[in-house]
Structure formats: C-alpha cells, structure tokens
Amino acid sequence: MRKCFLSVSVCLFVLTSFSLASFSKHIVDYRIKAKLLPEEKAVAGEEILTWLNDSEQAISELQFHLYLNAFKNTRTTFMKKSKGVHRGFKLDRENWGYVEVKRIQIKDGPDLISTMEYIQPDDGNEDDQTVMKVILPEPVLPQEKITLNIEFYSKLPKVFSRSGFFQDFFMVAQWFPKIGVLWNGEWNCHQYHLNSEFFADYGIYEVEITVPEEYVVGATGKRIKEIKNEDRTITYTHYQEDVHDFAWTACPDFVEFREKFSMDNPPVDTEMILLIHRSHLSQKDRYLNSLKNGIEFFSQNYGPYPYPTITLVDPAPGAMGAGGMEYPTLFTSFTFWWLPKGMLVQEMVTIHEFGHNYWYGMIGSNEFEEAWLDEGFVTYSEIKAMAKYYGKDKSMFDLPGLKISDFALQRAQVIASGKMDPILKNSWEYFSTGSYGINSYSKPGLTLLTLERYLSEEVMLKIMKTYFERWKFKHPTSKDFIAVAEEVSGQDLGWFFDQFLNSPDKLDYAIGDIKSEEVKEPEGIFEGEEPMAETENVTEGDKKAKIYRNEVVVVRKEELAFPQEILVVFENGEEILERWNGRERWKRYVYLKPHKLKYAQVDPYNKVLLDTKYTNNSRFLKKKKTSVLKYALFKMFRFQSFLTFISF
Ligand SMILES: [Zn+2]
Fold it and tell me: What would the pLDDT profile of 451-495 be if each residue is shown by its tens digit?
C-alpha cells in the first residue's frame, strides 16, 4: 500500500507532543529546506545552522564536512583508496556525486564564500574536497552562538557506498554541509575515507523535504507536518532533538507500514516505521519482528529506546550499496525476495543497524578515531541478541543440515585474520579494509564477550548499563569505557585492555604435553640413610600401589596472555582444576598419584573466546606406542651418536 493522502490540497499535522526532555547539550541547530530533484538526481538545499562555541576559547575559523565530494572524481581520498569499490559495489562513472556550497552567510552579515578553502587534515591530498574551512570576520566567543545561512546543491552519486540513487530510489545521507566537532579545543573534522564512519555534535534538526507527490519519504525524527503543494509536490517536515545527523530516503515504490511498539520495563513507547520496497513485501514480517527484537533487547540490556520513531528502510533491488547503514532513528537493512527463512542475514543486519542507535546514535564516539566503540559494541550486542532470539547454535544459518551461529562466523573471521593492526587505530590507517573490519567489528566483539566470561554476565551487564547511562549523548573515548569497566568490576583491567586494544597479536593456549610414568624406587649408591621414595606418602588404601608421576604442560603459543583454568582428569575420575595467570610461556603441573592421567584441558569452560585454536586445548593420555617415524628417528639418532663417537 503506497501511502495515500487526504484529498484536500493542504493538510497540516502539527504534532506538539515532544516527549523528549533535552538529553544532550545542543551544540548544533539545523533548520534545512531540501528539495529532491529526481531528474537531476540531486537535492537543492538551504540550511540555517546555529552553532554554539562550547569551548573556552574564541573561535575564528569554522570547519565543515562536505562528505559528498568524496564521490566527485577518482582523485579524492575515498576514491584513491577504494578504487571505486565499496563492500563489493562499484562506482558508476557516469554518475559522480558532489556538494556545491553556493553561499555561506553569517546571519545579518557577510557571505564567507570568498574565505572558503578546502583542507585535508588527514592526508594532505589536495584533490580531496571533503573538508572546508571558512574564516570569520569576528571570532565566536566562548558560550556564544553564530548563525549561518548556507545554500547548497547536492548531486547524488549512483549509490554504491551508502548514499545516492538507483533509478527512482534515493538514499540521501551525508548530504549537507555539516560542521565539524570542536573537541578538546581543536577542530576534529576528518576527511571522508573508505574505512571510517563519522563523528558529529548533538543538537536539533528540523528538515523540510519536498518531493514529487508520488514519492514515499522516510527520515530521521518525527514527522510534524506535511503540506501538499500546488506543483504536485509534497513537503514533509521532520523534527528531532538529541541526534547528531539527519538522513532521509524517498522512493515511489516504498510501501509504508507503521506499528506501535510499547513495553513497560523499561518504559518504551515508539513507532516503528517500515519502508519496504514493493518487490520485497514477502519479507515484511521478518523486518518488523527483528526490529521488535532489537528494540526489546537493547532497551532491556542497556536502557530504554527514547525516540518517538524508528524508521527501517529497505533499499530497492539494485540499491544494495545503500543497505546496512545507520543514521539517527533511521537505518537501512536489506533483503532479497527469495531469502530463505533459515538464512538470518536480514534479521542480523536489522538488529545490528538498529543497535547503532545506541552505540553510534546515543553514544557519540569518534568513529574516525575509535571505530570499535561503535562497531565492536554493536557486534557484541548483536551476537547476544541473535543467540537470544534465534538460537545459540543456529543464529545465522538454520537450514536442514547447516546450522551456524553468528558467534561462530565472527570467530572464524578472527581466527583467519592476520596480525596487521591493533583494535585501537585511526579508522583510515588500518592496513586494509579487511583489517579495519576485523579490528572494528569481530575482534572487539569477541573481546567484549571474553571480558564478559571473565567478569561474569551480571558484572558485564552492569558495566554496559553504567557506561550507556553515564555517557549517552556525549563523546566518550576508550578510556572512559575502561574507567567504567574498572569501577563497576572493582578490578584493575589495565592488563586486559592494554593487550587487547593495543596489540595486533593473537591468543592461543594449548596443552603442550601430558604423560604418566611409573615412579621407580631410588636406585644406586647413597651415603648415609637411603633416600625416601618420591612417592612415600602416596598410598592407596593399605597396599602399596604403583605410583605414577603425572605431568601436564600448558603452553602459551601466541603473544597475548590471559588467565587460564586447566582441568586435569585422572583415570579414576578424579578432577583437579588449576588456575594459572598465563603470563609465562609454559607451566608444568606434576601429580604423584596411584592413577594415570586421562586427559587435560585448558579453558575447560570455554571462557576465553579469543583463543584462536580450540583443537589444541585438550589432550588425552596416549597409550605408549612407538610410531614407525619415532622409531626411525631414534635409530638415526643412535647412528649419528655412533658416528660422532668413532670420529674422535
Ligand atoms: Zn555497524
């Protein structure tokens, strides 16, 4: 069902109930008028931006992101690195994208366009125009505001990387001149890179979107007004506070579904808006059900979803490059009309992207510099949510004869990865896109799961809740998360984070050796009293039993160290659980017992999820049998010894 309108030429809904008290400090206030020009594949825009100087110094230069200029030619920083390919989708060389700033005028003051200059703070690539600065005639004083009127024209690329069009589908993202973040007294305004997402300040967005009347529109925030214009266009106004970006989408082939979502504990009251392409209607319930699961999971585990709407966008077939991306209160997922129920990629992407409303939307970390604080936290949460709703061992593939969990897939990536980068690194400076992916998504996801198993699920839940509650609508860094983790757990976790965030190395413990040898009575010539047998105090019942020297060697095979538990099991069923700090390269345990060993296992309760090789974690005592190879080597050794002997 396409959205239909009342037949009156003008209909106006002004929804006055903004239930949100202000959560964030409003550094920015954007009032934007945007007009979609479907023929030109472009948006004409006017933006009134009010910016608060929340620093303690006077500021006489402003910096802006002009993200769409990443798609302008083959020499931009994004294009040089990507070579026009992102996540497997390719640039269309007939459809470049760019944003042209036509005017940037201080309210009741001069146009700053003549002072405008492109800058390249990250790589000095002078062909890159994704960041600009303008010089103010007079500085903005601390705690004062400046208002600018900006006129711009955004030409959208054919979508292959998040933003753009495909036929009459439009994903309008990273599309307007957007002020950087004045952070710790300096502009933090990075270029548009292949391997990085974004960073921005919180504030208010009120955006009027004008489209031809047959287009169905979705956007960040709540729709507060819609006006049918005389030129067969419609203007929708969306409003949202406490967000740090604004994205919208338009397509005549969207079918819109709206459904309330409410829960009592914690209290959540929001509206789910699904914009699904009509060719995917068969997948509608999968979208809505997984979105419900996402809202429930994140609300229960971290804090209630606070916004009045959440919009799920299903990109048109052919526009998959727009899929799987997050924006405040709006995200894109993807599906195929033929996607079997047991392939849960649609559910996973929906839950993942919804989850970004927490670790990207409300926790506003700097993704250019610390991507793991978003993607890693989302991956951690997604693995847990997928296991909860779709089954621990089949949360990604639940097909006859093929059951694989999301966790297993993430772990497989960590195992297969190289050791090129640590988790903590500027996003655009990783060795490769693959290394960015591993170190921002799966490895930090597994790192947080390992921390959870180490500290207990209860403690970890408290850490995550405390971190979310304390840092939402702010710009926390890794240090802030570590401080919360240490405070809540009451433990020094420096050893953990130092290693896992800063080292590219891996973790692997193994049972190196396990043997049981019968202990013989002492033999030979002794002065004075004959020594006691090693086994004197080891008896079984009254009869003198055979005594075995049982030996287990645990080995740290890779650079990273983690405390280990070692389960030692004897033939008679006796079990001993050892604890080792795991720091040395090896540790030997010796037991004199009237029984032989049966087996030994490091990490028997599977707590250390970052251990990259489980197959060497346990070892059974082998029956003494000399293999042919061993026998041959032994003989050769004897022969070499003989040669050595006769050569002197
Ligand atoms: Zn993500």
Answer: 999 999 999 999 999 999 999 999 999 999 999 999 999 999 999
Ligand 1 center from residue 553 Cα (angstroms): 41
- Spacing, Cα 349 to ligand 1 middle (Å): 8
**Residue 527: predicted pLDDT:** 78
Strand residue runs (E) in 348-410? 397-399, 402-404
What is the 332 CA–ligand 1 centroid distance (Å)?
Answer: 11
Strands 309-313, 268-277: pairing is parallel
pLDDT at 641: 55
pLDDT at 533: 60
For residues 91 and 79, the answer to whether their CB atoms sit within 8 Å is: yes
What the block records as the tokens of 119 is 């800058």
What is the pTM for the complete model shown?
0.90
User: What does the block give as tokens for 436?
Assistant: 């960015």
Residues of the chain with pLDDT under 70: 1-21, 529-544, 623-648
Q: Is residue 286 helix, strand or coil?
A: helix
* Amino acid found at 179: I
CA of 507 to the centre of ligand 1 (A): 25
Cα 153 to ligand 1 centre (Å)? 29
Tokens for 138, please give them. Answer: 């007079």
CB 335 within 8 A of CB 287: yes
Greatest distance between any 2 Cα atoms in the chain:
116
- What the block records as the tokens of 481 is 């998360």
Contacts 24+ apart (CB under 8 A), 298-302: 298/354, 298/355, 298/357, 298/358, 298/381, 298/385, 299/263, 299/266, 299/268, 300/265, 300/266, 301/381, 301/384, 301/461, 301/464, 301/465, 302/358, 302/381, 302/464, 302/465, 302/468
Distance 443 CA to ligand 1 centre (A): 13
Side chain identity at residue 277, one-letter code = H
- Say how many Å lie between the CA of residue 385 and the centre of ligand 1: 14
* Ligand 1 centroid, distance to 356 Cα (angstroms): 7
For residue 85, the model assigns a pLDDT of 87
Tell me the CA–centroid distance for residue 158 and ligand 1, in Å: 22
Ligand 1 centre from 353 Cα, in Å? Answer: 6
pLDDT of residue 231: 97
